[in-house]
Amino acid sequence: MNHEVSLHGKTFTELIPAAQIQQRILEIATEINREYAKMKPLFLGVLNGAFLFAADLFKHVNHDCEISFIRVSSYAGTETTGQVKSVIGLNMEIEGRHLIIVEDIVDTGDTMNFLLNELDKHKPASVRIATLVFKPDALRNQLNLDYVGFRVPTDFLVGYGLDYDGLGRNLNSIYVLKP
Ligand code: IMP
Ligand code: MG
Question: Dihedral sign, CA of 17, 73, 111, 48?
Fold first, then answer.
């Protein structure tokens, strides 16, 4: 097993092993199954980062549900730009729907804050957030996160959808940048 990976010349060490990620996703799905049984929720995966989480979560949902993917502007490198531009791909009718936003990570919360405001304009019946990873100490928005996989320190992470300048999304575990 690989406990260290190198991407663009930087070293990352394993923080959350693959099995732990899968176990936690199962727990979140179980909660969602209980709470959304008769609501035909619409999952909105946020690309690119959330594609694996959205897929693995969705596979465990055992009642009627739909999924669609949207995109919000991302940032390059290890620092957030703090500038979120637009939502792309919102081509489904979401008025009156029960939405579950599926995110890879909430850092400052700027992306999620922006997304919530945009979605709200379309009058969904309800909106909840499922994020695999949450960095509470980086949060600078008033946000209510309904399903959180893991709370982590503010260090830079890669793996399981999360990238460092495009690399690392394919890793099955989550890794943290070595100081
Ligand atoms: P926020 O708007 O600051 O909450 O950042 C949200 C987005 O920044 C996430 O959807 C990720 O794409 C990206 N991001 C934040 N922290 C990390 C990280 O540690 N590794 C990789 N991407 C990150
Ligand atoms: Mg993301």
Answer: negative
What are the catalytic residues? 107
Tell me if 113 CB under 6 Å of ligand 1: no
Q: 17 vs 14, 20, 22, 40, 98, CA distance in Å?
A: 7, 5, 9, 32, 31
- Report how far ligand 1's centroid is from the alpha carbon of 37 (Å): 31
Do 171 and 7 touch, CB atoms closer than 8 A? Answer: no
148 bridge partner residues = 131
Q: List the pLDDT tens digit at each of the 179 positions of the chain.
A: 569 999 999 999 999 999 999 999 999 999 999 999 999 999 999 999 999 999 999 999 999 999 999 998 655 444 555 565 688 898 889 999 999 999 999 999 999 999 999 999 999 999 999 999 999 999 999 999 999 999 999 999 999 999 999 999 999 999 999 98
| Rounded-to-integer distance, Cα 83 and Cα 48, Å | 17
